[in-house]
Every structure is written in C-alpha cells, then in structure tokens.
Amino acid sequence: MDRREFMGKSGCHAAMWMAAPSLAGLAAQSQAPAGPKYKIEIEIYEARQDTWCHKKGDRFEYPRDIGRICPWLLSSLHDFIILLQHGAVLPWKYEGTPYQKVIDAAGVTTEFVRCPDPTSNLVARIIRTKLA
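Request: output the structure for the sequence above.
Response:
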C-alpha cells in the first residue's frame, strides 16, 4: 500500500471525515451570543521603569485599545482573552504570590500573563467583568 492509499483509508484523513458531521453540528451550536457578556480590560501590573513600551498602571479596554498594546504582549494575552470572553475560569490561583487571582463567577475574574520579551519584566492583568 502506498502513502496516498494509506492516508485515504486511515489516519487524520479518515478521522476528519468521520468527525465532519459532528463538527458541523458543534459549529452550529457555538454561534456567538447576540452581544458581549463580559467587559475585558488589561492593566499593566508590573514593568521595568525604563521599559520602552508599557508602564506600570497603563490600562486598556479590549478590543477598543488593541492598537495601543505591544504586539508581543497582545500575542501572549490572546488565548487568555478568548477563553475569558467565553466564560472560562482557569483554576490556578497563585495563592501566596503577588499574582493571586480573583475568581468570582458573578462579577470580576482576573488572570495574569507575562510578556515574552525577556528584558521587559512586564506582567499584565486581564480583568473580566460580567455585564448585567
């Protein structure tokens, strides 16, 4: 059996075709809600005083201020923001550290994310607030 014949009968190709009907149903069920359920804000929680991009205390509204956020930091924040926008609660709390999170299903939830730039010492706090 050659590679093309094998891939046509097994592996990812076969799994994709077997899963296609259920994936289509899942896509139909996961339509975005009519409006946002959460307000997302980003606050620079820690940063070197001489950093070139963001200063401690800088605040941004997401997605309104997306163009003001360093692309490296935004890349690190992206997956966390998407999860938080969809109601996810990441269970780690970092108890006993400066990064102890707030987890309140009825109100505010926070998450901390470090910038990948090793010279910035930058940590951002994502603040999710449930809208009424």
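The mean pLDDT is 82.
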